[in-house]
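Per-residue structure
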Amino acid sequence: MPRHSRRYFVRVIQHPIHARSCGFGSNNRRPLDPPPIVQLFAQTSGGEEAEIRDSYTPFFVLHASLWSADGQEQRSIAKKDTRRGEVVQLNALQGVTVATPEHYRDTTGHYGYFLTFGDISVRDQGEYRLKFVLYNLRRSNFELRQHARQECEIMSDPFSVITPRQFPGMLPSTPLTHCFVQQAAQLPSRSKPRRRSASGSSSGDGESSRSQTGETFRSSTSTNPSLDEPQVRKRRSSSTLGPNKKDRKGKEKATDVDTY
């Protein structure tokens, strides 16, 4: 078989459904839900499925970019107005937008090479798609300053990015996400959905549980008003009382005790 007779392509096997807009800050952002997962395939020149060699996988890089819901316009730039009246341009996607193949077993028990995106957030609300472009660094000649060879590209299904006030909550993790997490994949995983309560906070949120624990700790360690300082000193001094000790000459020597 010729060296470059194989064709490599990808398929999106888990599409994002929604996400909470993260704005222009880096705190308290939420990734796409569920996390996008893409699988790598290889075909021969005759269209038959081919095996992917382990030594080739480190040379594949999959890049994700943000596009409009119809897939016609790129939306990779987000604009922000400053107090001085200036316009600052930032990347519309925040997080890790590249992935390399990892060898996992799917929910059917079959092994394959998958590329996961567990840390991607979108700054502005709207309807979007993700465009995935697969590059093959092995077929690039960097000595001649050539660009990495593009093998293929594919679009995800449309998904919604919602403001934090209107965001309904994170969905429970899919069986595929749980399956990959058990194999040490870096993906967000949860067993129950997070729903917003009437007060605006997410039910089951870790921050609220930590604050409740702190209140319990402070109430259990509060001082007893019946134990004032003199009584504490008296207890400490009484605990030092003991039988009279004899010196080397056989005479009894009383132990000095401070009294209050």
Remarks:
- The CA atoms of residues 104 and 183 lie 7 Å apart.
